[in-house]
Every structure is written in C-alpha cells, then in structure tokens.
Amino acid sequence: MKKLIAGLVLMTLLTSCYNTRLFVGDAKPTDTLEEVNKVWTNHLLFGLVPLDNARQNPSDYLPDNQENYVIKTNTSFLNGLVSGVTFGIYSPTQTIYYIPKK
Description:
Elements: H1 2-13, E1 19-24, E2 33-41, E3 43-44, E4 49-50, E5 69-74, H2 77-85, E6 93-100
Antiparallel strand pairs: 1-5, 2-6, 3-4, 5-6
C-alpha cells in the first residue's frame, strides 16, 4: 500500500502544466489583452491522438476577421483533473483567443 501511495505522489509531482502562446500579426507580449473566446481541444491517450476539433480555424473564434490576436493553449487544472480521472484516455487542453485592447 505504501508503494502505491508513493507511486501516486511521485506521478503527481512529475506532472506539469502545458502552456504556449502564439502572437499573430502585430500582437506583442506587452499588449493588454482581452479574452474573446475559450474552447476545449479534445485528445485521446495523453494527447497523442487528436480528435475532431484539434485543428481550429481562428476566424471561427475571433470577431470581425481580426488580424492581430494571441492564441494561448494550456492544460488548466480542470483539464488535468479530467485527464487524471480518465487515466489519460481523454486528455483535453484549453485554447483561449485574445485580441489586443485598443
């Protein structure tokens, strides 16, 4: 039993939060950003197999054909919790779309 608990604690400590940001157009890291949309991206087997919405078209999630925007993809706490409950069979990430405030 001690080995099982130690193994679970070790697995938890070795996890991390995935986070990436893409700056498109004239968007800069120093810009003040406004969140315009948030969507979960679905994957199977610890993120190895993408599902239906893994390839997203930003124009579907941004207002008025925006040319300057930021796309942030990360694993939130809730995404990690869902992945943990399903033992990594279903592993969602979250994609957030931002536009610079004017």
